[in-house]
Amino acid sequence: MKFVIITGLSGAGKSQAMKCMEDLGFYCVDNLPSALIPKFADLCFHAQGEVEKIALVIDIRGGMFFNDLKKSIDHLKEEGYECEILFLDASNEVLIKRFKETRRTHPLNPTGSIIEGIQLEREKIAYLKKMANYIIDTSNLTTGQLKNEIKDIFVKGIESKNITISIQSFGFKKGILLDADLVFDVRFLPNPHYIDELREFTGNDKSIREYVMKWPESIEFVNKLNDMIDFLIPYYVKEGKNQLVIAIGCTGGKHRSVTVANILYETLKEKGHRTTINHRDIKPL
Question: Measuring CA to CA, which residue among 124, 172, 164, 168 is closest to residue 145?
Answer without folding.
Answer: 164
